[in-house]
Automatic annotation (TrEMBL):
This is Large ribosomal subunit protein uL22c. CDD domains: Ribosomal_L22 (cd00336). Its main location: plastid. It comes from Colletoecema dewevrei. It is found in: Plastid, Chloroplast.
Length: 155
């Protein structure tokens, strides 16, 4: 059975204590760039959102090198997303017995990295096993890698 080889890894940071708009300002700068260029950009940008994003990019690269055995020089940020998380709501006491609401927004950041060296190798052969479910009147055809059109296949 032919199967596409996994070329993407991700790192997910949840409940990061900052606004999603402030994190998106930094994420838009690094989307689509290489790993080394991203680290340089994040070190030089003057925003508070750079540090948690730097940790996520570093974690995604570590996942890629550990899980896929890829080189960090071949990594590219293919997708970077920021979603709004829950809002922490507190009340601050004010004068004359009143209270003032304080809202602390959080966000969820997802960094997806792709290995550019593995994109040329699209397929790998897994073990030939039957599917878990079978539909009626369905035949499964497996690719035979040994019939390469040699001398014996001619009629």
């Amino acid at each position: 059975m032919l199967k596409k080889k996994k070329t993407e890894v991700y790192a997910l940071g949840q409940h990061i204590s900052m606004s999603a708009d402030k994190a998106r300002r930094v994420i838009d700068q690094i989307r689509g760039r290489s790993y080394e260029e991203t680290l340089m950009i994040l070190e030089l940008l003057p925003y508070r959102a750079c540090y948690p994003i730097f940790k996520l990019v570093y974690s995604a690269a570590a996942n890629a090198s550990y899980n896929m055995g890829s080189n960090k020089a071949n990594l590219l940020i293919s997708k970077a997303e920021v979603h709004e998380g829950t809002t922490i709501k507190k009340f601050k006491p004010r004068a004359r017995g009143r209270s003032y609401p304080i809202k602390r927004p959080t966000c969820h950041i997802t960094i997806v990295m792709k290995d550019t060296s593995l994109s040329s190798k699209d397929v790998e052969i897994n073990s030939l096993k039957n599917p878990r479910w079978k539909k009626k009147h369905t035949t499964t055809v497996y690719y035979d890698m040994y019939s390469g059109g040699g001398i014996w296949d001619k009629k």
